[in-house]
Amino acid sequence: MPRIYIKQLKVGEDAIDVHGHVNNQDYLRWMEEIAIHHSTAQGWPMQRYLDCGLSWYVRSHFIEYLRPALFGEEIAVCTWIATMAERESRRCTLFLRYGSRLKVLARAETLWTFVDIRRGRATTIPDEVRQAFEIVEGEEEALHEAARLREPG
Known about the structure:
Elements: E1 5-10, H1 24-41, H2 46-51, E2 54-65, E3 74-84, E4 88-97, E5 103-116, E6 121-122, H3 127-130, H4 140-150
């Protein structure tokens, strides 16, 4: 089970905005999709949460754009859990471009709140969920892992 989940993708034409680079909405969509993929890899697909009457709701997003992502580029999206409190978790995401060296395109954080769906209120994260995710304290490990995935052989 990966501490850091990495997905490589190719930027499609549908992600490009009038300025010729990836639209902000696509970064948000990718953040949500990779969070779901990571959770699934940890044994918690969406259906399992729903069967328990629980789910994660976004409380806030923060994105710092450093460089544009362009049509046709292959990028890597990396995500991990940075903190887990009683009822919420902070998830970090990096968007990376490969080239002669790895370049950070954007950094993002999402604060997720764990919710009892029937009550519509925040609830304590069960130990079973908490134990499925290891905490990663900084982005250095993600950068190292992403670089390792691109090494030949």
